[in-house]
Amino acid sequence: MAMTQAARTLREAGRDVISLSVGEPDFAVPDHIIAAAERAMADGHTGYTAADGITELKEAIAAKFERDNGLAFTTDQINVSPGGKAVLWNVLAVSVGPGDEVIVPTPCWVSYPDMVKLTGATPVMLAGGDDFKITAEALERAITPRTRWLMLNSPSNPTGAVYSAEDLGALADVLRRHPQVMVLSDDIYEALVYGNVRFATMARVAPDLADRIVTMNGVSKAYAMTGFRIGYAGGPVWLIDAMRKFMGQTTSCAAAPSQWAALAALNGPQDFLDGWRAQYRARAAMMTEAMNAAGLSCSLPDGAFYIFADCRDIMAAKGVGTDADLAMAILDRAGVATVPGSAFHAPGHLRLSYAASMETLTQACSRIAAFCAD
Ligand SMILES: Cc1ncc(COP(=O)(O)O)c(C=O)c1O
User: Ligand 1 atom 14: the closest Cα is on which residue?
Assistant: First the structure.
């Protein structure tokens, strides 16, 4: 937030600032999805809906889980919330409180630990290895009798790391020994995996643990529909039921036209995603090379749309004490907004989003390179 505000202030002062701090796709929402939202409004879908979503959308979500993930859910196991963020919050709000612990692998998305704290529960930060992923041994050590959830995010924001089926299988072996622990699988970047990497999700890898897993997803990142605010989840009936009751007293429901637009996204053509993925891939390759050449060490991410670069050498070279100070210096002197790794519980890093055009990214990279070389 501080970076965004600082970038805004510089822009207002007339400075040319490139923002690589955003967490949303730069592509336009496909026409058939826009048309579905317009049609829904014209057809009178403008009022409240069932608290946890219209049946048509729940059916489309169940079909999506079956088609893409090999998961079988009935509609009473599906929740629709106003955004993926709201799904996560609803799950935590109805299931944990003071005295409970939630394991959050790091680097992690900024909202996880704060959401856990808002419930009164305690986030237990668990550092990933060099590949940014947690190991079975580390998970085993972090679990206590008070552990209620393991939050898993793959592909990861901020690192782009993707857990393979084997990685998840090893974690599942640990979880089998600890029946008090559930898994909140944040699959929101599922559509954004590259190269030969295969997306995997815990409920598919460990079907025997299905009644302890919530599989969360949404249309924000896959279909560039961040402003529509639709997220969804499949999970055990008792939890989905509690979330519905909670929503009945809080958000009421996700916006009706957005639900119809999400239905069109899930049931409509998916082939355009290949074109988007190819563009993301090319951008990631360009940026990874440019950032390594500039002294910001990073590897080609397997998924999502972020480069997570180790900036400790540049911090040392510039005599800068923290990654936040470095991000501010890059903003101030190079006019490029990034997000410091400390926001993701991984100090000494910078997150650079490549959800921007190749032209913009090329310009941003040459500005950062000039800053580093200066
Ligand atoms: C890891 C992760 N989970 C969930 C979300 C929430 O997505 P939504 O915009 O649908 O609330 C985000 C958005 O940045 C994210 O990065």
Answer: 23
Question: 47-267 — its CATH code?
Answer: 3.40.640.10
β-strands 101-106, 18-19 pairing:
unpaired
Q: Nearest Cα to 203, choosing from 275, 129, 152, 136?
A: 152
Rounded to 10°, the helix 55-64/256-267 angle is 30
Reference 159, options 289, 305, 297; nearest CA is 305
Q: Which residues pair with 126 in a beta bridge?
A: 105
* Ligand 1 pocket, residue 109 CB under 6 Å: yes
Residue 115 C-alpha to ligand 1 middle, in angstroms? 13
**Residue located via tokens 């997803």:** 217
Q: How many residues does the chain have?
A: 374
277-314 residue pLDDT tens: 999 999 999 999 999 999 999 999 999 999 999 999 99
- pLDDT over threshold 90, residue 265: yes
The response to whether residue 83 sits with its C-beta less than 6 Å from ligand 1 reads yes
Give me the residues paired with residue 267 across strands: none
Please answer whether residues 91 and 185 qualify as being in contact, where contact means their C-beta atoms are separated by less than 8 angstroms: no
Separation CA 245–CA 42 (nearest Å): 30
pLDDT one-digit tens code per residue, 77-115 = 999 999 999 999 999 999 999 999 999 999 999 999 999
User: Domain boundaries in the chain?
Assistant: 2-28+272-373, 47-267
Domain 2-28+272-373 in CATH 3.90.1150.10? The answer is: yes
Q: What does the buried/exposed string (b/e) look like for 138-169 if buried means 16 or more CB atoms within 10 Å of the residue's CB?
A: bbeebbeeebbbbbbbbbbbbbbbbbbeebbe
Tell me the CB-side half-sphere exposure of residue 250, using CA atoms within 13 A: 16
Q: The whole model's pTM is what? A: 0.96
Gap between the Cα atoms of 200 and 66, Å rounded:
14
Relative to the CA of 86, which ligand 1 atom is closest?
A: 11
Q: What pLDDT sits at residue 178? A: 98
pLDDT of residue 313: 97
370 Cα to the center of ligand 1, angstroms: 32
Q: Is the CB of 219 under 6 A from ligand 1?
A: no
In DSSP notation, 329-356 reads HIIIII-EE-EEGGGGT-TTEEEEE--S
